[in-house]
Amino acid sequence: MRIVIADDHALFRDSLRSLLAARDLEVVGEARNGKEAIDLAWQLKPDVLLMDLMMPEMDGLEATKRLAAELPDVKVIVLTASDDEANLFEAIKAGAKGYLLKDLEADRFFSLLEGVAQGEPALTPSLARKLLDEFARPKPTPRDEYDPDALTEREQEVLELMVDGITSNRRLASELGVSENTVKFHVRNILDKLHLHNRAQVVAYALKHRLVEPTPEG
Fold it and tell me: Which of 20, 55, 161, 163 is positioned for an S-S bond with 33, CB 3.0–4.6 A?
């Protein structure tokens, strides 16, 4: 199994590479952010890409979505410290083949990784139950008509930043000068009010309905 590791913490990459090598798994490349992960995936065509979520320049969710569309044969497995259900749901919807927490025991990690090679999702039972519960819940379809008073002024500001490409909680929090938990609250409200499921849909919907005009580049 040929593996690329995408994580912005060098010490974690070193530790994970050593752990994988001890099991005779080949680490063919390492990325520090989502953009590098995509570039390496195109160059190296790995079997598996272990993707962190919170990374600079391009976060793991955006990179996962791009890879699922551009290189579907590369199996993206999210490997993160975040047990936030919203991140889990968005990662799977973006095309990730699994979602593993960094505090997972090594034997369990390798067992799930071996299953990926045989087409099985890399999910612990507790996360799999959360997914089943989420996808079993009926979802309303997006509205054709938009209520201009639906979003608060702050939610509209968050929406404008997302359309400009700032979609990670960390970067949104930095731009707005608030905590990441506050950002999550605003994003969840936007999703609920627009009857959408993830941030990519929010951006597409906002552009389609001209809720926000994207900032011209340059």
Answer: 55
Q: What do you get for the CA distance between the two ends of the chain, in Å? A: 42
What is the full DSSP assignment across 19-39? HHHHTT-EEEEEESSHHHHHH
- Side chain identity at 10, as an amino acid letter? A
C-beta atoms surrounding 174 within 10 Å: 13
pTM confidence score: 0.62
What CATH code is assigned to 153-208? 1.10.10.10
CA distances from 60 to 9, 49, 80, 91, 196 (A): 14, 11, 10, 8, 20
Residues 6+ apart with CB under 8 A from 116: 48, 75, 77, 97, 98, 122
| Architecture label for domain 2-136 | 3-Layer(aba) Sandwich (3.40)
pLDDT digits (tens, 9 = 90+) for 164-214: 888 888 889 999 998 888 888 888 888 888 888 888 888 888 877 777 765
Nearest to 49 by CA among 169, 125, 198, 70: 70
